Amino acid sequence: PHIYSIYNYFLLSIYFDYITLENILVIIFYGMLVGCTNLVEIVELAHTDDVFLKRILEMPHGIPHPTTISYALQLCDMGTLIQVYLSWREIIYGVMTDKVASFDGKTMNGAHGEGVIKHILSLLTHDSLTTIGQVGVDQKENEIPAAHRLFEQTPSSLLLGLTLIGDALHTHTKTAHAICDVGADYLLTVKDNQELLRQDIQYFFETHTTLNNTATDYQYGHGSTIKTTVTISHDPDMLAYLSHWKDISTVGKIHRVWENENEEVVRRLLMK
C-alpha cells in the first residue's frame, strides 16, 4: 500500500506540472454549483463545457480524469475545502441560507486496503445541495458516535438554526442532545428499532385526534395517485411524557397512500 501511495503521489506531482490544484478546484466547484454530486458527473460536465473552461484555465492536457481529481482532493483538508467553496458560492450567488440538512452514511465500494476508511457520513443541505460536513466511520465504530463527531467538527456557523434530519438508525436521545448542543433542530424518524416509542406515538394519534393539526397533499402521475397526510401535535402532556428528548416541541406522523396500488407507508416523527 505504501508503494502504491508513493506511485500515485509521483504521478500526481508530474500532473501538477501541467494543471494546478487551484484549477482542479475550480472544475470541482463549477460542477457543484450546477448540481453535480460526484466526480464522474463533474468531469462529464467539464468535457461538455471544455471550450469555456480552457478559456479561463490552463489545461494543456485537457480535462483531468476523475481519479486524478480524487488524488488531488486527498491533499486538501476537507473542512477548509468546504469553507472555501461556500465563500466562492457566496461571491457568485450572494448569501444562500439553508434551512434543512440530512446526515446519511454511504459505503465506498471502490475503497480497498487495510486501514482504509470505507464508510463516510456526510451532512448535506437540501436547499443548496452542499456537503457542509463529512467524517469517516471506522470499521470498529458505528454511525451513531460518528454522527456526534460530525456535528462537533462542522463549523457552528453552518449548523446554527438548521433542521437536521436523520433516519431511524439515529433516533436516540443522545443524538437529539448532540444536535441541540450545536444550535440546530432535529427531525428524527421512529421505526421498529424503537418499538415502544413507535407504539406510544401511534396510540397517541389514534386516541387524541382533536389535539392534532393535519394537512393533506395529492400527487398525480404515472397512472397513480399518491395521497400524503401530515399530522402534528404540540400536546403538552405528550411532550412532557417525551421530555427526555431534549427540547422536543412536536410529535408527527406522515401517512402516504398509493391509492391505485393499495400500498401505504406510515412514518412517525420527533421534532425540535
How would you characterize the overall build of this protein?
- The N and C termini lie far apart (46 Å).
- The protein has three domains: 1-76, no CATH class; 97-185, Ribonuclease H-like superfamily/Ribonuclease H (Nucleotidyltransferase, domain 5, 2-Layer Sandwich), CATH 3.30.420.10; 191-271, no CATH class.
- Helices cover 41% and strands 25% of the residues.
- By secondary structure, it is of the alpha+beta class.
- The chain has helices at 2-15, 21-33, 39-48, 50-56, 66-73, 78-93, 143-153, 156-159, 173-181, 195-207, 236-241, and strands at 100-107, 119-125, 131-137, 163-166, 185-190, 213-221, 224-233, 250-258, 263-271.
- It has eleven helices and nine strands.
- The longest helix has 16 residues, at 78-93.
- The protein has a nine-stranded mixed sheet with strand order 3-2-1-4-5-9-8-7-6.
- α2 packs across α3 (39-48) and α3 (39-48) packs across α5 (66-73).
Please specify the SSE layout and strand pairing.
Layout: H1 2-15, H2 21-33, H3 39-48, H4 50-56, H5 66-73, H6 78-93, E1 100-107, E2 119-125, E3 131-137, H7 143-153, H8 156-159, E4 163-166, H9 173-181, E5 185-190, H10 195-207, E6 213-221, E7 224-233, H11 236-241, E8 250-258, E9 263-271
Parallel strand pairs: 1-4, 4-5
Antiparallel strand pairs: 1-2, 2-3, 5-9, 6-7, 7-8, 8-9
Helix pairs in contact: 2-3, 3-5
Descriptive labels:
272 residues, nine-stranded mixed β-sheet, 41% helix, Nucleotidyltransferase, domain 5, disordered N terminus
